[in-house]
Amino acid sequence: MNPDFERVYHFHVRKTAGTSLNAAFWALGGLDLRAVSDSQAVEGNGLRFVRGNAKLIEAGEYFYANSHLPAHELRLPPATYTITILRDPAARAVSYYRYLLWARSDPAAREAEPFIDEVLAEGAFLDRRFSLRRRRGGFLDFLDRVPASQLLTQLHMFSPRLDPAEAAERALSCAAVCFTETFAEDLARVAGELGLELAEKRERSFGEKVEPSEEERELLRERLAPEYAMIDRVREGLGATIPAQ
Fold it and tell me: I need a surface site. Which of 109, 128, 172, 177 has the fewest CB within 10 A?
């Protein structure tokens, strides 16, 4: 590993390919999603991995850690290589909607999703009427009910005030900002910077496709305007090209 860094931490935003990034690092310890699901700290091949525990994350005694905790709730130790992955906000929101519905409506979800109770608690704002069979009305209801911190998760990860400028500045302070749309290339870049052999491992394909109507997409983009502003600022700061949607 690059001697400039003692550990790696991933600011994990749901539905951005974050689990695939985790899987690439866990594989270095001979571990997979199931192996780490029931523990907040595990070891493999002489490497320690931490998930979701703020105290352990801040202590810094690990090779790799990740959590969904907002960046402003953590104080990471020096010499930590930080990573986050960002995604087109509308694509992420639709994927998140699918994910919550799948978790509550598919009987196989409890077996397939190691963190099912966490996901169900996160989707508690949905009532029992929601199902994939009510996609159109359900999505509009979803937009009415979803907390801003969950709809604008990428923004909330880096700004408690949901401020695009603040969020972009904090995201750009990460050692690596990756994008779902260019994940393979970004993972290769991270591997080169850290001096590690990281292989792309796609994880967590699930559920039925959901296609919002034009009306729903227009409303969604309107709600997501602050997050698009953040992403644009990040891409500008990186000198990255914004892919066509």
Answer: 128
Do 83 and 132 belong together in one domain?
A: no
Region of residue 243 (phi > 0: left; psi between -120 and 50: alpha; otherwise: beta)? beta
Residues near 6 by Cβ (< 8 Å), separated by ≥ 6?
60, 77, 79, 80
Q: Is residue 130's pLDDT more than 70?
A: no
- DSSP at 4: T
Domain tally, the chain: 2
Residue 67 shares a structural domain with residue 185 = yes
Q: What is the pLDDT of residues 71-121, one digit of tens each?
A: 999 999 999 999 999 999 999 999 999 888 887 777 777 776 767 777 778
Q: Please answer whether residues 41 and 62 qualify as being in contact, where contact means their C-beta atoms are separated by less than 8 angstroms.
A: yes
In this predicted structure, what is the pLDDT of residue 121? 80
d(CA 13, CA 91): 13
Residues 183, 105 share a domain: no
**3-state SS, residue 171:** helix
- Say how far apart CA 42 and CA 208 lie, in whole Å: 33
- 40: tokens are 């907040």
Q: Which domain holds residue 124?
A: 89-154+205-238
Q: Are strands 7-11 and 41-44 parallel, antiparallel or unpaired?
A: unpaired
- What is the reported pTM? 0.90
140 and 215 part of one domain? yes
Mean residue pLDDT of the chain comes to 88
Do 81 and 37 lie in a common domain? yes
